Amino acid sequence: MTRAASLPQSRLRSNGGTPIVGTVTRGTTNPNRLRRMDRWIAATHGAELRRAGEPVAVDLGYGAAPWTAVELLGRLRTVAPRARVVGVEIEPARVAAARPYERAGLVFRHGGFEIPIPQRPMLIRAANVLRQYEEGEVAAVWERLRARLAPAGDGSRGGLLVEGTCDEIGRRHVWVALGPEGARTVTFATRLGSLERPSDLAERLPKALIHRNVPGEPVHAFLRDFDRAWAAAAPYASYGARQRWIRAVRELTAHWPVLDGPVRWRQGEVTVAWGALAPVR
Q1: DSSP label at residue 11
Q2: Ranges of Polar residues compositional bias (predicted)?
Q3: 29 pLDDT band (50/70/90 cuts)?
Q4: Among 19-28, 80-89, 147-156, 259-268, which is the least confidently predicted range?
Q5: CA distance 79 to 244
Q6: CATH number for domain 4-180, candidates 3.10.180.10, 3.40.50.300, 3.40.920.10, 3.40.50.150
Q7: Alpha helices, DSSP H only, in 52-131?
Q8: Residues with Cβ < 8 Å from 228, sequence gap 6 or more?
Q9: Is 148 helix (H, G, I), strand (E, B) or coil?
């Protein structure tokens, strides 16, 4: 396993002189791009955020414009009114450009995977950040970010790291959720009207899985079975794509550890235990 110490270290330093860990991303971003991920976070992690009192969330690598951080604050506050968001970017010019958008509960900081804030965040969202890294570097990034999360205890499961990839306008998205103890789940989310078959989501698998969509790997078997369930559910298409998706996911539950239910399935989502899809070689 790649160790955290081997992560790429930028030549940049923070204002305090601390080395910044990571490399500059393309910075591509669009308003409302991460809405599916944000809504899932609010629905599944909202209780933990409220329990924290004044939870801090980090939008890591928000890109060339601050829209995703602004939107994250609004969505989190629907479930945790005292939530605060820190946008973290490795490119200093992007931080400077975002500063005019600061407001109560929203600030921007220069940094990378070291997460340059004193608090242990209840949430780190890293969307479309690891696509440019090598697969062998993912474990080290996850390890470093998990170490910065708020710890579990007193009935709390601790902070949550959500890392994944989506298309440019947020129609298709796949992410992994990790706690302080390690990876927990994989979620597939899509605008159902844009979907021909579930395996269309393969192109948006996060870096830890995208090169594993080959025979012999669990994620390949999962997408194969999902396509078969989707085909078998074709008669439900007359009731709409949502009903077809729900029927297909229900069929999947007979063979795969699906962890959510119809409320989330209706949103075009399905969440599976990480252990069932984790790479085997």
Answers
A1: E
A2: 7-17
A3: confident
A4: 19-28
A5: 30
A6: 3.40.50.150
A7: 67-76, 92-98
A8: none
A9: coil
Closest alpha carbon to 129 in 61, 207, 35: 61
Question: Would you list the domain boundaries of the chain?
Answer: 4-180
Q: Which two tokens stand for residue 198?
A: 């579930």
The SS3 assignment for 79 reads coil
CA distances from 104 to 70, 119, 160, 181 (A): 11, 17, 23, 32
Residue with tokens 């780190």: 124
Q: Which long-range contacts (CB under 8 A, 24 or more apart) does 67-71 make?
A: 67/29, 67/30, 67/31, 67/32, 67/33, 68/29, 68/33, 68/34, 68/127, 69/98, 69/101, 69/106, 69/108, 70/101, 70/106, 71/31, 71/32, 71/34, 71/35, 71/38
pLDDT tens readout for residues 40-61: 999 999 999 999 989 999 999 9
